Amino acid sequence: MKRTWVAAIVAGLGVVLGSPGIAAAAWHSGSAPRVVTGWTDSAAPGVAFPNDNRTHLPLGTWQDEAGVSHTSRVYATFDLSRYDGALVTGGTVYVTERTAADCTKRSIELWRTEPVPEPPAWDRAPAELAQLDEIQTPEYCPTARIGFDVGAAVAEASAAGQRLITFVLRVSAAHEADPAYGRRLNWYNDVALRLSYNTVPAVDSDNLFTTGRSCVKAAPYPAMGTAALQARLTDADEGEELTAEFAVWPVGSPDARRTYLDSTERESGRVATVTVPAADLAQNQAYGWQARALDGTETSAWSDTCYFTWDGVKPSAPVVTSTNFPAGDAPGPAGVKPVFVLDGHGDPDIAGFQYDWYDWDTTWPCLREIKPGRYGQWECTDPLDAPDRVRADRPGGTATVAVNPDSYRSMSLFVRSVDLAGNVSAPARYDLNVPWSMPDVTAESGTPEWNRPVQLTITPAPGVTATRYEVVRGQNAAETVVPDADGVAHYSLVATEVNGEYVTIRGIGADGFVSMAATWSYAFTPEPGIRADVYDNTVWPPGGGVGVPGTFTFSPPPGWTEVAEYRYSFDWESEPAVVPAGADGRATVTWTPEAEGRYRLMVYAVKADGTWSEYGAFYNFEVPADAG
Fold it and tell me: What is the pTM of this model?
């Protein structure tokens, strides 16, 4: 039996200056929930006295104000259910003394009793099972913080599945009747039970994965070309860091079991991973595997068993031909998908094919970038279940695919054979020449103005026949536009985007061919708009002449919903002229030049409250000597 420890309490605040030995850092510390505490009184043998949170708990013999002698013992019951499944390695019952009859005398024992859910009375006290600890020294009296070692008893009760454990504090039998050994325990600190424990970790057998696919527990076993084993580890202890050990053995040869350690620490709920070296596996051999979790102190039971068959041999490369695009530099037909025949040339290991316009830098076990799942596990599907893969019509057979090109001119299609284990061959390459397919897009309504209609005309590339066009404006959803009989389509929009418009257009053929993307964009500047009829600076040679009048139309700056007037001047006139805006926010002025040469028109928009546009518009144009 260990000796009790005792410490001083500083300034009555419960600060412990000393503490008993605790378990290694791998173990956790916690407080067991208190069910009830109370005391008994020999002078009231039929009455139980629960802690009323105002009366300091009497211990030993004491006398009341009337001189009547009482003997009391203190009982405390704790709930161990929260530690079900945990290994309890230490326990300490704490009490804090409040007063003592004589600080030179102390003799306290702590016993384990039969568990009781309610405070007992003196004459119905539970049987005392074993004395666990005692203190016979008087240091730090009268406000000592005292700890009693109950670790073995708590561990025994927890291992037996006992939900409640009860302790009794009493003055030793030799001194219990002596009032000099009597004292009171602080009701506020009460009786507390602190435990050192560790929950055994576990492996979640519902979340075992072999190379990104769910555990297979019965034949037939899936073929794997990469043996990446993953298991989800769990631990009820907060903040635990876990590692894992995996065991692998040939089916039918359990004595050939080999183990592999994932020493990377992971939090509870995440998967551990090992990849078995190919050198440790035999071709076409079936294997079983299990995992177990380690928390640095305890080791879980082994998980359920998963199975796979090892296939580490790559299939042969395929043969690639095309039914409508010649190989080499000669261009194929415009506006149609190239059609390819992928041939496994009778190799029974070839189950299908993977194809792309670009060669692959690496080979992932999933034949694609691995994206972790909910627990950090790989998520791989059937090696032939993806948009860039196709199954052969039979082992070693063929498959036909129509693949839309994403560019033009010289291109290469890369194709790899794929077997059922996910192994891939070296790539085969088919070179071809794809004609230009981008439609032509023009704005028929002239220079765009903010908040005004824009008419786009879409003309297909030479040789391309589009049955429809897919139009995406900015971040909006795609719209469909159907062309006229001549293949030309029209798309209208109102230019409401303050910063400008951006439109992407693709032609769609009858066979699903998708053309190269054409874009049309126009960026608005933040000043008013200016348009001219006679003196249009977008044409050459310039029109008009000396004495020839021309009109200039002003429009609101992008984002302006109301304009009261415009202030304008030709060639920095000393005072700008004013023209009112119409209901649509626009205004038109007529101007007649008196001399030839280059001119600059400056325009500002003005709101009804007198606010000028932050930026003015500058329109440079030329007046010829003679009218054209």
Answer: 0.69
Number of domains present in the structure of the chain: 4
Reply yes or no on whether the pLDDT at 1 is more than 50.
no
Half-sphere exposure of 205 (CA within 13 A, CB side): 11
Q: What share of the chain is helix, strand, coil (3-state, %, to 5)?
A: 5, 45, 50
- The whole-chain average pLDDT of the chain stands at 91
Which amino acid, residue 73?
R
SS3 151: helix
What backbone torsions phi and psi does residue 476 show, to the nearest 5 degrees? Answer: -75, 170
Amino acid code (one letter) for 412 = S
CB-based contact 367:424 (threshold 8 Å): yes
Which structure tokens are listed for 99? 């007063």
For the residues of 202-236, what is the DSSP string, one character each? EEEEEEEEETTEE---SSSPPEESS-EEEEEEE-S
SS3 for 614? coil
Q: Which of 379, 381, 382, 380 is nearest to 352 (CA)?
A: 382
| Whole-angstrom distance, CA of residue 180 vs CA of residue 472 | 95
Give me the DSSP letters along 424-470: B-PPEEEEEEEPP-PPEEEETTSS--TTSEEEEEEEPPTT---SEEE
- The set of residues, in sequence order, having a beta carbon less than 8 Å from that of 206 and lying 6+ positions away, is none
Q: In 3D, which of 495, 489, 445 has the Cα closest to residue 471?
A: 489
Quote the pLDDT of residue 573.
67
Report how far residue 584's alpha carbon sits from residue 239's, in angstroms, rounded to the nearest whole number: 67
Residues 129 and 57 in one domain: yes
Q: Residue 610 belongs to a domain with what CATH number? A: 2.60.40.10
**Token duo for residue 374:** 């909910």
- Count Cβ atoms below 10 Å from residue 159 Cβ, excluding itself: 11
* 171 lies in the same domain as 295: no
Residue with tokens 């082992």: 395
Cα R_g (the chain), whole angstroms: 45
Residue at token pair 């070309």: 225
Within 8 A by CB and 6+ apart from 33, the residues are 78, 79, 82
390 vs 401: CA distance, rounded Å: 8
pLDDT tens across 174-230, in order? Answer: 999 999 999 999 999 999 999 999 989 999 999 999 999 999 999 999 999 999 999
- Residue 2 reports pLDDT greater than 50: no
Residue 85 lies in a domain: yes
Extract the runs of DSSP E, i.e. beta strands, from 477-542.
Answer: 479-481, 489-494, 501-508, 518-522, 529-532
